[in-house]
Amino acid sequence: MNWQEIRLKYPKQWLIVEALDAHTKSGRRVIEQYSVVNMFKDSNQAMESYSQIHRASPDRELYVLHTDKETVEIRERQWLGIRK
Fold this sequence. Notes:
Elements: H1 3-9, E1 14-25, E2 28-40, H2 43-56, E3 62-66, E4 74-75
Antiparallel strand pairs: 1-2, 1-3, 2-4
């Protein structure tokens, strides 16, 4: 689904979404296709669930977003250092 389809189907919701088709342009992630993983009324619940899913599957490109946003803007960050 694209973002506008998601906004229509899940109004006023916090969502965990997975980027299925994405690329980087000018330091920002451009996501063409999303998959909705889960929905929440509360941002805290969404973040807790995101943390659990991310720990189990760190390779998935997941985001917590609210459908009130008309557009999605995700800036890429460069991570420095070593993870354990």
